[in-house]
TrEMBL record, chains A, B, C, D:
Pfam families: Beta_elim_lyase (PF01212)
Protein name: Threonine aldolase family protein
Keywords: Pyridoxal phosphate
Occurrences of domain Aromatic amino acid beta-eliminating lyase/threonine aldolase (ranges): 14-292
SUPFAM superfamilies xref list: PLP-dependent transferases
Organism encoding this protein: Salinicoccus sesuvii
Alphabetical list of Gene3D superfamilies matching this protein: Aspartate Aminotransferase, domain 1, Type I PLP-dependent aspartate aminotransferase-like (Major domain)
Record InterPro entries: ArAA_b-elim_lyase/Thr_aldolase (IPR001597), PyrdxlP-dep_Trfase (IPR015424), PyrdxlP-dep_Trfase_major (IPR015421), PyrdxlP-dep_Trfase_small (IPR015422)
Required cofactor names: pyridoxal 5'-phosphate
């Protein structure tokens, strides 16, 4: 079985394991107070070109719930696309800390500034608005769950709506490397740091064993984040493990190099489908591609390959999702292309 | 600086890093559904001699809050020693999920069955008991925060009080290896599995990079634990990392071997203090020792060694805490012993 | 200004105030342990024809959150129509206690058994169901927010789906008097007690100053409800006030008599609209009617009458909501009818 | 049975019932938006001599949890005497909204500024303070659970400690009328409004059917309180009921007059005990008195009177609590005095 079902099917980039090995016997303080973590913080600060706060956490659900807990008062809710990870794939983690996810209909994973504007104005124009959760932040992902990208223009408009309506903007960057490496992308990491109040740079899906680097850009919400990390179970005892991994990923641009590799692998697969004139459910811009196959074609491929069936598209046709990653090798891609051609 | 301030100052046992390296390119499903994790579960089940459920989480606070969330209804509280980790060192994690920690006065980190009995009977005898959190579980640690051990007899009596009062018994085993390896210990892991409803086997402080193996022995509370793990941010995407580590720790008894080493290192230090006729704050039975030093002695040692100042003992004397671990080497211990002799 | 905007615009039925006056100097224990409350409990038990537990609370949001808190584990969610009170009009009260409201599209305020079946089966058929809140109860209202009624057949089918899928069924009966008094109704209060696990009988909107009688019919969820009432701030110190009010409402059928009056008043208004051939947005079966008016007609009426604009229906036409209640008098209805005729 | 066991054993002052009767048919908007509530707000604002926000809630637990929810971030805790109502008599309501109650040892119900200072400094001086709940507010009661009073000087010192340590000061005034009416009192309501950030004026125990007037004096924490009231189930549909009651209590000083009556009744009882040379457990300054009786004396009195046994005082002697209130009549007091003389 060759797996294209997710971007976290293998361990970590070899350089990370090597560095963990080399630093293994260093005696260091815990909880992210070691010098590796400080170095990683500095790399990310430089990358963002801003005086941001950086905290390292082990996973995305943990990062999402900690960030949102640190920013909202009890009666406030978070606007998100109904396809967003916090809306549907975290077992109600956001509700478990007391906040309603205010879902807007997604369009290939995205929501538009205008939708946010309408929702927020509807809230404030309702004379009974005190009887509804108050929208206070917008959560989006770059790239989205559907592998699509917000353009610089789209993000800027979201930022503007947020600013005018006193909302925070949060970007879930669990796969942000694959956004930054995409040919279709026009949003730099400095743009992201400038446009949102908080975001995170995903390691779990981009070369690390695990880890997300939370970046807080808004001065107002910087205070006491570490207390809340600890309270929500997100402060790793051996914080060095996170620091060292992000140090390796960012000291020489490894993060960007391996992200680019994933994109190239996805592109090779996309071309193979294109040659067979197999339609895509959404434009293939990042490391996820969504070809629309017949049930028969799906049955054929699934004997050898692991992937997700994404959504029905008419009768007996379905979009599937194939993920490449930093670890995808040419051999596996060659094998799949060969089998695509035979479909 | 030589560090004796905690048992998580270094990375992981070399065998773990090697195995992570060897398995790095295996393509495996996420979230603990891989075969390594299954193997680790089996090892622990065999060790406990019972049909327990085993779940792997990254840290202790996370394990504590997830276990307690899965077991209590909203109005129920958890009895714990006032020195317990959940009482004082998790930034209110248990309160953050809605439950009051009902603190009992500790005696060198321990609470007695009789104390629990008195507290629970006081609750039920109070005519206004509906106006107070209902005690529903007892949380203790083996070894305790003070490095002491519950005897088999003490644990059995706690179990009996719990059974008679319809309480769950939970054991935090973040350092359980060091309890099991102690010469003073008469409680086996089978005893623990038999006597409590849930406990965990700590990896973070005993040779792993990170990880706690939660063991649920009570059939009633087994259901849906994975939902709550996910909700509380405690389900690692690459669950294999936890499975592989516990596989290594338990396939050939490594866990016990390295725990024993830590105990031997602690013993060497304890003997050095004894030779100097320096008193201990609590009996030195596990990997933590608590010599009582003068302020001058503390000042001398702290130029070269990292350790915690634990508690004032009379005027200008304080108990300090020195931790050994799986990673403590003879060289560091030799150096410290030499300096103890010079005190 | 004559108010038809809600069914809680006046105080209480005169008999209630009189009884409060008469009993004012009785010295009674607090927290619902007095004999009036016991009598009220007995009346309701007799009415339901079953050995139910009865608890009195001051308001609907409070009742909803307390009931749901007492029934769900942390990872479980509650299915509700998207028009349900808990979905949109309680400032996220259910999320504030940790649970996601799993919204289904309403049809004039109602959801169908088949919708619930599809949602629940979708959950369990999803291989990643542990990453989503687990549906564990269904919340509906009788009558609904749109004034419509579930038939006995519809309720029975919902009950069957719940039973087959191990879900609780909860009925919000804030206006249940107006359902029971409706000519279109074929569901008795015994039916309700038999078909659901928990429901409540609203007093606030049906003649009382305030108060909802929570009725728990399922043995499994009866335990410790009073603890949770107290914790959620819903245990009234002078519980007698609730007991006395429900005693008056149910000792001689006052509740049913005044509910019937409200229905008659609504019917008179509905007929007046019918005579003018003004269409209804939803069938007028209870104390709420929803005529569709032009913007000009709305402007005319709102100079003299208070009511809610409910929803746009095409261009420059809107459904409005007019509420009658136990307190609506013939004079106010006559005045409005006269003005309807002039439209 | 004559009841001296609490100050909420009867209904309400007659004037309140009369006013409810007179205003019963007024058609008014809900949720505290009516003119009676506005008038009551104005009275309280004038009383406080400051531009405070005033909100009316039905009970103390509800008020406490709503106030604290509105003021704290998730990782923050509230300092309280261990005898405080939130510490021991609200079934963990504060923990249920996520916050730890940081208990300090009480001295006859009170805590001193110095205790707060020590606790807060201990927090900030601990290098691991991020692993503990951050103290952010101080909760006290005036009068305390033990019927004692803070002096102006004591309150001023608490305020100073709070100001210097960036803590909020909250005063639970469930029985504040009895504090203001006490001869031992030197703290006016203007003092309270000036010294704390938020407090409430209790109605439930001082003449109303129910109701607490929450007074927010600190500008920073005024925003959005009504959202949180609604979310926590504390916004009464017929808010008029609260407005009308506080209107009656404060339009002509009724609140102060009936409070004074309770104090006089308590004083008569205290004198009777004094004449018998029966010692008091705490000074009898408000409406609660705590004579220390032998078990035999207690047995005698309890055949005719309801009261609480408060605490053991040596062998076979106990302090009991007798409560007077706005509703205590001379006849009942005469009867008890007669029986005290016979002891």
């Amino acid at each position: 079985m060759i797996r294209f079902d997710s971007d976290y099917i293998e361990g970590a980039h070899e350089s990370i394991l090597e560095r963990l090995y080399e630093t293994n016997n260093e005696q260091l303080p815990g909880y992210g107070m070691d010098y590796h973590t400080d170095t990683a913080r500095r790399y990310i600060r430089e990358l963002c070109g801003a005086d941001v706060d950086v905290h390292f956490m082990t996973g995305g659900t943990q990062a999402n719930m900690t960030i949102i807990a640190s920013m909202l008062r009890p009666h406030q809710g978070v606007i998100a696309p109904d396809s967003g990870h916090i809306a549907g794939h975290e077992t109600g983690a956001i509700e478990s800390i007391g906040h309603k996810v205010l879902e807007l209909e997604n369009s290939h994973g995205k929501i538009a500034a205008e939708q946010v504007k309408i929702a927020v104005e509807a809230h404030w124009n309702d004379p009974t608005h005190e009887h509804m959760p108050q929208p206070k932040m917008v959560y989006i992902s770059q790239p989205t769950e559907a592998g699509t990208l917000y353009s610089n223009d789209e993000l800027t408009r979201l930022r503007d709506v947020c600013t005018h309506n006193n909302l925070y903007l949060m970007i879930d960057g669990a796969r942000i490397g694959y956004a930054l490496a995409s040919e279709s992308n026009d949003v730099s990491i400095e743009d992201i740091a400038r446009l949102c109040d908080v975001f995170y740079i995903g390691g779990t899906k981009v070369g690390a064993l695990f880890g997300e680097a939370v970046v807080i850009t808004n001065e107002v919400i910087k205070s006491d984040f570490r207390y809340i990390m600890k309270q929500k179970g997100g402060m790793l005892a051996k914080g060095r493990l996170l620091g060292i991994q992000f140090e390796v990923l960012f000291e020489d641009g490894l993060y960007f190099k391996i992200s680019k590799h994933a994109i190239e692998m996805a592109k090779r697969l996309a071309q193979a489908f294109e040659e067979k004139q197999i339609e895509m459910y959404a434009p293939a811009t990042t490391n996820q591609i969504f070809p629309i196959l017949t049930d028969a074609q799906i049955d054929t491929l699934k004997t050898e390959y692991a992937f997700h069936v994404w959504e029905e598209v008419g009768a007996s046709r379905k979009a599937i999702r194939l993920c490449t990653s930093w670890s995808t090798n040419h051999g596996d891609v060659d094998a799949l292309i060969k089998d695509i051609r035979k479909l």
